[in-house]
C-alpha cells in the first residue's frame, strides 16, 4: 500500500488508541515524524473524509502519516487498507481519516501504555490530587496544593490498573504529612479509579537484579565483587517484580518467588493488558515483569530484511523462529505477527508462560504449551502457530532435533536476556537450520567498548559454528535499544551464520 499523489492525510483517533496507532504506523514506516501528534477539539478546522465528523471529540488526537490521498481512490478504501496493513482493522469504527487539520497549540500529555505526565493542573494526576485535597478541609493544606500543582507527575495506565512512581508518591506524602496507610488515602484511591477508569493502583519499582532486591547498577557492582572472590546473592532469574507495591485492589496473594502457581493462583491474580505495534499482550503485574522499553526492538523485528523472501530463500510462513527467553511473548509475538510459520518458545517462569498463552489467544494465534518432561507430538497440533516449552532452554537443542521433520526450518533465534545472553549462544547455534540463519544476541555493553565487544562476540560465534560446520559468520547490525546503567547500553547484535557449502 503506497498512495503518493494528492495531499497528506492523518488519522483522528480517541485518546485510548494514540499510543497503539502511533506504534503501528511507525513499525510500518507510515508515521510522519516531522509533524507532531496534536489534540483535536470541535473548535478545530478539519476535514474528516472517511467518517462522520461528529466522531471528532475533545479527547481525540490527530496522528500524521506519510501517505498522500489520491483523489481517484476511495477514501474509505484508503483507511481500510491502512488499518489492515498495521493490524488495527478492529478499531475502524473509532478511527477517522482526516486532512487539512488545523489544531490549537496545545500539547498532549501522553497516552495509554506510556509514561504520561507534566506539571500544572493540565496534568490529570495533578488535577485529581488537588481535587482530593479540596475534600480534606480544615487541614491547612494550601501549601501542599501549590507544591503538588508545580510537580512533574508521571504515571502509566495498563488496563485495568494505574501505575504510579514511588518517588512521586514520596513527594505526595511529604507535602501532605500523610502516609499511604492513612485513612485519607482511601478516598484518593477511589477518586483515582473513577477519574482514570481503572480498578487497581500500584507503585512501580525497578526489577531487582537479585533476590536481595539490589538494582541493576548494584547488581553489576556485585558481579564485579564475585570476580574478586566474593560470593554474590542468587540472581532474580525469573525477573520477578518483587518491588511492586499494591495500593488499591486485589492483585493476588503474596507468593514466594519459587512458588509453583496453581490454576487457582492464576484465577485469583490480576491480569492487565497492553497493545504495542498492534500486538496484544497480557501479564500478572504482581508476579511478572513487563518491559515496555523493548517496544523499539519488537517493531524492528516486524521489518527485518532477514525476514523477507529475498533473504530467507522461501516465503516467511515456510520458516520457524526460536525465542530462547520468551517471557510473555515480547519478541515471539513479533515473529508471529511478521508471518513466521512456527514460533518455538522457551520460558521457565510459569507466570510468564500463562501470560504468553493468554496473549497468544488474545491475538488469535493457536498456542500449545509443553511442560518440562512431557513428550511432544507436533504433528498433532499442525494448526498451532506458537509452541511454548515450560522448561530450561538448555533442552531446546534436543527438543528441536526431535521435531525438525515436523516444523519449518529454524532461520531466526532470539536470545533476549540481560545482562548477557551468552549462556544460550551455543544452544542458539545448535538449533539453527543446517542451511544457516540469524541469531539476535542481547548484551549489555559499555558504550566505549561496543566495537571491540562486537568483534569479540563474532569470533566467539565463529568458534561455536565451527563445531557444526565451516561457516561465514558476521554481525550485520548492532541495534542500541536503551541505557541499562550509566555508560552501559542494551544492545542487540544480528549475527548471520552461513555454512560455506550454502554461502
Q: Return residue spans where pLDDT drops below 50 for at least 5 consecutive residues.
A: 1-7, 42-58, 70-74, 100-114, 213-227
Total strands: 20
Shape: globular
How many helix segments? 15
Distance between the termini: 33 Å
Helix-residue proportion = 25-40%
Beta content comes to: 15-25%
Find the CATH superfamily of the largest domain.
Answer: Vaccinia Virus protein VP39
Class computed from helices, strands and strand pairing: alpha/beta
Biggest sheet statistics: 8 strands, mixed
CATH class of the largest domain: Alpha Beta
User: What is the arithmetic mean of pLDDT?
Assistant: 81
Q: Strand order, biggest sheet?
A: 15-16-14-13-17-18-20-19
What CATH calls the topology of the largest domain is Rossmann fold
The CATH architecture category of the largest domain equals 3-Layer(aba) Sandwich
Output the radius of gyration: 25 Å
Give the domain tally: 3
Amino acid at each position: 500500500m503506497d498512495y503518493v499523489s494528492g495531499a497528506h492525510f492523518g488519522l483522528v483517533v480517541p485518546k485510548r488508541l494514540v499510543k497503539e496507532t502511533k506504534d503501528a504506523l511507525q513499525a510500518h514506516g507510515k508515521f510522519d515524524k516531522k509533524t507532531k501528534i496534536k489534540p483535536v477539539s470541535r473548535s478545530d478546522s478539519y476535514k474528516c473524509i472517511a467518517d462522520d465528523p461528529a466522531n471528532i471529540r475533545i479527547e481525540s488526537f490527530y496522528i500524521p502519516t506519510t501517505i498522500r490521498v489520491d483523489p481517484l481512490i476511495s477514501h474509505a478504501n484508503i483507511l481500510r487498507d491502512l488499518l489492515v496493513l498495521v493490524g488495527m482493522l478492529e478499531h475502524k469504527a473509532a478511527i477517522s481519516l482526516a486532512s487539512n487539520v488545523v489544531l490549537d497549540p496545545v500539547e498532549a500529555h501522553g497516552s495509554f501504555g506510556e509514561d504520561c505526565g507534566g506539571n500544572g493542573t493540565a496534568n490529570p494526576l495533578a488535577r485529581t490530587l488537588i481535587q482530593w485535597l479540596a475534600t480534606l478541609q480544615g487541614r491547612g493544606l494550601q501549601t501542599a496544593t501549590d507544591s503538588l500543582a508545580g510537580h512533574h507527575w508521571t504515571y502509566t495506565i495498563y488496563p485495568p490498573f494505574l501505575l504510579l512512581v514511588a518517588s512521586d508518591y514520596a513527594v505526595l506524602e511529604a507535602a501532605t504529612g500523610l502516609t499511604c496507610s492513612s485513612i485519607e488515602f482511601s478516598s484518593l484511591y477511589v477518586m483515582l479509579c473513577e477519574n482514570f477508569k481503572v480498578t487497581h493502583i500500584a507503585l512501580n519499582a525497578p526489577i531487582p537484579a537479585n533476590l536481595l532486591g539490589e538494582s541493576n547498577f548494584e547488581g553489576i557492582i556485585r558481579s564485579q565483587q564475585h570476580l574478586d572472590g566474593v560470593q554474590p546473592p542468587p540472581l532474580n532469574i525469573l525477573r520477578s517484580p518483587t518491588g511492586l507495591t499494591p495500593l488499591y485492589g486485589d492483585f493476588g496473594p503474596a507468593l514466594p518467588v519459587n512458588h509453583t502457581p496453581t490454576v487457582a493462583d492464576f484465577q485469583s491474580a490480576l491480569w492487565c493488558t497492553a497493545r504495542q505495534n498492534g500486538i496484544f499482550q497480557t501479564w500478572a503485574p504482581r508476579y511478572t515483569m513487563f518491559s515496555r522499553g523493548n517496544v523499539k526492538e519488537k517493531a524492528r523485528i516486524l521489518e527485518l530484511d532477514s525476514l523477507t523472501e529475498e533473504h530467507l530463500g522461501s516465503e516467511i510462513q515456510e520458516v520457524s523462529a526460536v525465542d530462547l527467553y520468551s517471557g510473555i511473548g515480547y519478541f515471539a509475538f513479533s515473529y508471529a505477527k511478521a508471518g513466521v510459520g512456527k514460533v518455538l518458545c522457551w520460558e521457565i517462569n510459569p507466570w510468564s508462560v500463562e501470560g504468553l498463552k493468554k496473549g497468544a489467544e488474545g491475538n488469535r494465534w493457536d498456542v500449545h504449551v509443553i511442560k518440562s518432561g512431557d513428550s511432544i507430538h507436533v504433528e498433532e497440533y499442525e494448526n498451532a502457530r506458537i509452541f511454548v516449552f515450560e522448561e530450561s532452554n538448555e533442552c531446546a537443542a534436543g527438543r528441536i532435533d526431535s521435531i525438525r521433520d515436523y516444523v519449518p526450518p529454524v532461520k531466526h533465534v532470539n536470545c533476549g536476556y540481560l545482562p548477557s545472553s551468552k549462556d544460550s549462544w551455543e544452544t542458539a547455534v545448535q538449533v539453527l537450520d543446517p542451511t544457516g540463519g540469524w541469531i539476535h544476541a542481547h548484551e549489555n555493553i559499555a558504550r566505549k567498548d561496543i566495537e571491540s565487544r562486537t568483534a569479540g562476540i563474532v569470533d566467539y560465534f565463529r568458534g561455536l559454528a565451527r563445531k557444526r560446520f565451516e561457516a561465514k559468520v558476521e554481525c550485520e547490525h548492532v541495534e542500541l535499544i536503551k541505557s541499562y546503567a550509566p555508560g552501559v547500553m542494551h544492545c542487540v547484535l544480528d549475527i548471520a551464520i552461513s555454512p560455506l557449502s550454502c554461502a
